[in-house]
Amino acid sequence: MGVVGRKTRRFSFPLLLLNFFVVLLLQRAAVLVSGTRLNYTKYRQVSILRLERIQKHLENINKPPVLTIQSPDGDIIDCVHKRKQPALDHPLLKNHKIQKAPIMPKGITRNNEKGRGRDAWEYWQTWHRNGTRCPKGTVPIRRSTVHDVLRAKSLYHFGKKQPRMIPLSRRIDAPDVVTGNGHEHAIAYTGSSSEVYGARATMNVWDPSVQEVNEFSLSQIWVLSGSFDGSDLNSIEAGWQVSPELYGDSRPRLFTYWTSDSYQATGCYNLLCAGFVQTHNRIAIGAAISPVSSYAATQYDITILIWKDPKVGNWWMSFGDNTLVGYWPAELFTHLAQHGTMVEWGGEVVNTRANGQHTSTHMGSGHFAGDGFGKASYFRNLEIVDSDNSLSPVHNILTLAENTNCYDIRSSYNNQWGTYFYYGGPGNNPECL
Ligand SMILES: *[C@@H]1O[C@H](CO)[C@@H](O)[C@H](O)[C@H]1NC(C)=O
Ligand SMILES: *[C@@H]1O[C@H](CO)[C@@H](O)[C@H](O)[C@H]1NC(C)=O
């Protein structure tokens, strides 16, 4: 992208411009996070050329809106015509016909949304407080800004996750191994080698503090297939995350992710590249979630279901009370075009060791699993979808945490919560340096 433009410029008059720099001020100045001031304000020198490349990229992903809604939290939500959404720019989706309704897993009834009042999606997304809704036939998309891109390592890295460095199998054999790219987990997972067609869980929502702009803290479901040590890992992910780099603040946000090549060239968060097809006109992916749980007080959780439509083969996602959000088209994947082989549930943080010490970025609530309900974060009612398109409770889960002095996990079972676990931790502490 932009390569041709760059070449011609190099030999023409605007060459002079390269010697000048634009000084940009990243706006959202300081955000109060659990007593620590995170300063996202940075004066950065950005060449006009780079700025032009960024603008061009943004023109590609920010589609012309039918209507624009200003969220009270500062987000801009564009209502974009369904057929104009970024997904359909994907070369494999040229003649894609947007799927209206999938076959739901057995026993699940799609939310017909006839009911009024505080439906899950109305309740959870901050931008609804504006009072304006996206018109029928459009989908709400969080607009990306130059500032969003400038916080990323590069334009290429914008919206992408770093590759997983350590294969899961090796991490299990040597749980104390330091992960290569600083990603740390506290997760539950199904044993591999089975065929999986989806997963569901209800996850507790918190607003963990994140120490560095380029660290994150997330809680999510992964549906995986392919190999961890190869370049062909297929992954479908959804949950909530706090990522100052991606969003410029420290609010927990609903997110999706996908990759079909181990987080290399394909895939991205949310609608930041062509891929995920959104169908709902009231759920914006990447939008802030509120309210969130507080310590020893009211707990809030969200339910996410991901499953493969048995007829068309697309991977659908529903939110809350079986409200359809959208889907990852089967065409995006290699292994997942057939089925998944493993599901993971839990938390992940990035530890950059910015001060030569383990990060104090929290996972979950920032409290260890042993603290239990109201204090530690939880995932409850873990279920998987089998080849018969039936949801069933997971009985045999394994758990993994690379460094239990920093973040840990404890799973259990009871009648109400089925298979569930508590997970998380504070990161940096005398036992985790
Ligand atoms: C944030 O950082 C900028 C640039 O480094 C500085 O000018 C500004 O005073 C800082 N703001 C706060 C609130 O610390
Ligand atoms: C809602 O969005 C519109 C359009 O962006 C804006 O003009 C208005 O101020 C917003 N209202 C509230 C209450 O945020």
Describe it:
The protein is mainly beta. The protein has one domain. Helix content is 10%, strand content 31%. The strands form 5 sheets. Strands 9, 14, 15, 16, 17, 19, 20, 22 and 23 form a 9-stranded antiparallel beta sheet that branches. Strands 13-12-11-10-18-8-21 form a 7-stranded antiparallel beta sheet, with no helix packed on it. Strand 15 and strand 16 form a beta hairpin. The structure holds 2-acetamido-2-deoxy-beta-D-glucopyranose (2 copies).
Number of helices: 6
Q: What is the overall shape? A: globular
The tally of beta strands, per DSSP, is 23
Helical residues, percent: under 10%
End-to-end gap? 42 Å
Strand coverage percent: 25-35%
Based on secondary structure, the structural category is mainly beta
- Bound molecule types: 2-acetamido-2-deoxy-beta-D-glucopyranose
List the domain count as a whole number: 1
Can you give the mean pLDDT? 86
Q: Stretches where pLDDT falls below 50 for ≥5 residues?
A: 1-39, 166-179
H and E string: HEEEEHEEHEHHEEEEHEEEEEEEEEEEE
Question: Main beta sheet, described?
Answer: 9 strands, antiparallel
Cα-based radius of gyration, to the nearest Å: 21 Å
